[in-house]
From TrEMBL:
One Pfam assignment: ATP-synt_F
InterPro entries per the UniProt record, alphabetical: ATPase_V1-cplx_f_g_su, ATPase_V1_fsu_sf
Family, as annotated: Belongs to the V-ATPase F subunit family.
Signal peptide (residue range): none
GO molecular function: proton-transporting ATPase activity, rotational mechanism
Lineage: Bacteria, Pseudomonadati, Spirochaetota, Spirochaetia, Spirochaetales
Keyword Ion transport: yes
Swiss-Prot/TrEMBL keywords: Ion transport, Transport
Matching Gene3D superfamilies: ATPase, V1 complex, subunit F
Name assigned to this protein: ATPase V
UniProt keyword annotation of Membrane present: no
Amino acid sequence: MDYYFIGDAELLTAFRFVGVEGSSVVNPEEAKAAFLKITQAYDGTAGTVLPGGPDCRVLIITEEVADWLGDDLTQWQLSGRYPLVVEIPGSMGRLEGRKTLVDSIREAIGIRV
């Protein structure tokens, strides 16, 4: 499995249509539990591979899930380990106050074309 999705049920259904497995979450506790399952390739006791496991290279999460994960997500991203995390807008659209990729690039290079 190369990709795994964590977000709302509607988007999970869409991702499953294209062959991407995932977890549907509705609150911060469920989001953190799903995130930990994916970022820890083994459960530590029996050595069994969990969903996502060592083959998961890209973790797709909604912006809402990213907000719920907070510092846990930041620490994971700074670690440089797989899976890489990609944030997408949820089924209700972009969260207010979030920058788009284009806005971030413009801010980084300092020019607007």
